[in-house]
Design a protein that fits this description.
Helix content of chain B: over 70%
Number of domains of chain B: 2
Oligomer: heterodimer
Structural class of chain B: mainly alpha
Radius of gyration of chain B: 20 Å
Shape of chain B: globular
Shape of chain A: elongated
CATH class of chain A: Mainly Alpha
Helix content of chain A: over 70%
Distance between the termini of chain B: 61 Å
CATH topology of chain A: Helix Hairpins
Strand content of chain B: under 5%
CATH architecture of chain A: Orthogonal Bundle
Number of strands of chain B: 0
Number of helices of chain A: 3
CATH architecture of the largest domain in chain B: Up-down Bundle
Chain lengths: ~110, ~170
């Protein structure tokens, strides 16, 4: 049996890589890639907790998997909207570099 | 340790290594198409991790939605914006050292918490057909969030269409 901690460490490592990608990259699509990695890391944690921790109320024994499904759905919605925004910005300003999109920056 | 457990461990470590290498490619490579391919590698390995955790339905959904839809969407967006960034300009912004430090600090903190906590964890016994149960629960116990998320997905797709239209 693989200890729960291994899955949590894998999730933490993937989350931190995604965080680095979202904070350090210039390109808006690369930032979205970082966010997708972070959502994936959270899903690993949710499914690992579902497998290893028994809920107090047996009616919620599948809650971890259901949560993971909702997170996947939200990730799909986020990717759709985010990439549509990137394409719209590229059309009007001819760039996807987030440093050049500073019209509303104070 | 029996042969079965040994094999499970080997599979887990292989998949975890592939997932992390793919993630490193995805956040460091300069050419965005390669970065997206690293992301696909990472998604596939995570689907394998779900199989190790015996969450077959989530694994299949991961392959369908992440590998099949989101990755293709990202690749299309990269091609539509010609944002390959293969020139001399760095793909990182000026704060990348701070970002790396924050990510490393967060990993250290999370790792300390994970290893320092007593989780009272033991693999739950899986009984019955979980996929049938999951389908039933989605339209009984979780019917309100299920409907809300379907409405949100519809709104997001219409919004994406309106925003990206010429």
């Amino acid at each position: 049996m693989i200890p729960l901690q291994y899955f949590l460490l894998l999730g933490a490592a993937m989350f931190c890589l995604g965080l680095y990608g979202a904070l350090a990259r210039r390109n808006a699509i690369a930032i979205l890639i970082g966010i997708e990695l972070m959502l994936n890391a959270v899903n690993i944690n949710l499914v690992a907790f579902w497998r290893y921790i028994k809920p107090a109320n047996p009616a919620f024994e599948l809650a971890g998997q259901v949560f993971a499904l909702f997170v996947i759905t939200l990730a799909a919605a986020e990717a759709g909207i985010g990439l549509a925004l990137v394409i719209a910005i590229y059309r009007s300003r001819d760039t996807v570099n987030v440093e050049d999109v500073n019209l509303m920056k104070w | 340790m029996t042969a079965d457990q040994f094999l499970t461990n080997v599979v887990f470590f292989l998949l975890a290594a592939v997932a992390l290498v793919g993630a490193i490619f995805a956040v460091t490579l300069k050419n965005l198409v390669r970065s997206a391919l690293g992301l696909i590698l990472s998604f596939m390995a995570v689907a394998g991790i779900y199989f190790v955790l015996e969450a077959e339905f989530i694994a299949i959904v991961q392959v369908l939605i992440y590998v099949g839809a989101i990755s293709i969407l990202i690749l299309f967006a990269i091609m539509l914006t010609r944002a390959l960034m293969s020139g001399a300009e760095s793909s990182n912004n000026s704060q990348w050292i701070g970002a790396a430090a924050i990510a490393a600090l967060l990993f250290g903190a999370l790792g300390a918490i994970v290893l320092g906590t007593n989780w009272h964890a033991a693999q739950n016994a899986l009984k019955g057909d979980l996929i049938v149960k999951l389908g039933t629960e989605l339209v009984t116990t979780y019917v309100l969030p299920f409907e809300a998320v379907s409405l949100l997905l519809l709104a997001a797709l219409i919004g994406a269409f309106v925003i990206a239209r010429e």
